[in-house]
Every structure is written in structure tokens, then in C-alpha cells.
Amino acid sequence: MKDILTADFMVEMIRTVSNMYDHGWDERNGGNVSLMLDEKETSDYLQRQTVLRTIPTGFAAPELEGKTFLVTGTGKYFKNVKYAPEVNLGIVRLKDGGKQAELLWGFTDGGQFTSEFPAHMMSHAARLKADPENRVVMHCHPENLLAMTYVHDLDERQFTRTLWQMCTECIVVFPDGVNVLPWMLCGTNEIGEATAEKMKTARLVIWSQHGVYGAGKNLDETFGLIETAEKAAEIFMKIAHLPRVNTITDEQMHLLEKRFGVQAREGWLD
Ligand code: 13P
Ligand code: ZN
After folding, report:
1. 215 partner at 20 to 30 Å CA-CA among 58, 114, 129, 194?
2. Which structural domain, as residue segments, surrounds residue 181?
3. What is the pLDDT of residues 231-251, one digit of tens each?
4. Which atom of ligand 1 is found nearest the CA of 29?
């Protein structure tokens, strides 16, 4: 077996969570990331028949039966992942219709996957239906998106239109817009189900007064998605208290759609 700490998926995960921490998105143990792994990616690095522990998940996700995920641990600090990946990360495989997770690697201090595992797994199932290439679900607490949920209408169309108007590239990066959940208790199956429902129509889901969820094909793309929305929110928070003299018009948004070959969420542009 090759050293798993040299595997591309591991190197990329460690870099990504370190970068998220450096961006200030993941104070203390804030945030969590899960990456679905293909069997061929892991076969050189993992004894897939050796199960270290079996951990009940508390929910069912039959669509994900047999799927393997590299996932951050509950209570773990992203700033520490690069120093002790085997403590702060784990690789689990779902079985019994998603009700059990077999630990194949990591969580060496007896820890387990993030408390937001329901939202992650249910979102993976929802996004895979929308895009079979989806591999990543990412949650974090970026300050401007969070701040916006205190001062902006939480209507999804309005919230999205404001973000689209803040930087020219936004509509190109997330033409599906953002969906928004009201404040809900985190770490529960209920918020997991609600997040997955919202993931059916957008790759970004705002958790009001808490943070954001993003989904994508790889870690870079998902990071970039959140980064772009957070940048837009930052600009909004800089200008919200000032008179708006200029904006990006819907007519200009339509030009961007044509130029970049994207289609804005139906009915969200005039
Ligand atoms: P975990 O430490 O369990 O991943 O929780 C962090 C968090 O952001 C909860 O929403
Ligand atoms: Zn959180």
C-alpha cells in the first residue's frame, strides 16, 4: 500500500481546509467538508476490507449505499488538519442503506465525522441526482454571507439578485442562484433534509445566521463557488448603507448569459 497522506485526494483536502481556515471561514471547529471517493482513487492507499469501527449515522441514505467519503471530524479545528490529518479526518463507507458508517481510516483519537453528517450525506444524494459528477459538499461560516442574513430580505430570488449585482462574474459562477433556509437547529436530520431539498435547485444554500453550504465536482470548484458568493456579499456589506448610484442591469445580465453560455435560474431575471 502507498502512503495515504500522499494521495491526491488527501493532499487536496488538507490544502482546501487550511485555505478555508486562512480565509477566516472556519473559526474554532466551524465548518465541515465531505469528498466522495471513487474506488479506483483509493485502491492503492486503503485496505477496503479492513473496517476499524462501525458508527451509526442516525439516518437513512439508500442512494449512497457502499459510497466512500473523506470527511472532517466533529469538534476538530481546520487549522490543525495539516499537522494531524489522521486525527482530524476520516474515511467512511456507508452501509445498511446509509444507517451505518464503516470507518476505514482516520479519527485515530476515537472521534467521528462532523455533526453535520446528515446535511452532507443528504446533500450528496440530492446533488448526485442533479449532477452525477458532484463529489463535494462544503460547509463554512464566511462572515459577509452570514452578515447579509441579518440585514437582507431572505427571499431567495431577492437574495440571489443582490449577489448577482455585486460582481459581474457572479451570474456566470452561480447561474442557479442561492437558496436560503431560515434559522434552524444545526446538526439535526431536519436541517439535513431541508438543506438537501434546497440542493435540488441550487449548489449554494445559505443557512441564515449560521453560514453556507456549497456543492460541486471537486474541492477547488466548490471552494471557488463559496469564495465568489462571499466576495459578492462583502461588496454588499460595504455599500448597503450608501445610496446605490449604479448597478448591473438585467439587460447586462442577459448579455453575460449569452457571452458565457449560462442560463440564469428561470424567472430570476426580468
Ligand atoms: P462539527 O465540528 O461537528 O463539524 O460542527 C461544526 C459546524 O460548523 C456546525 O455547523
Ligand atoms: Zn456550522
Report:
1. 58
2. 116-270
3. 999 999 999 999 999 999 999
4. 2
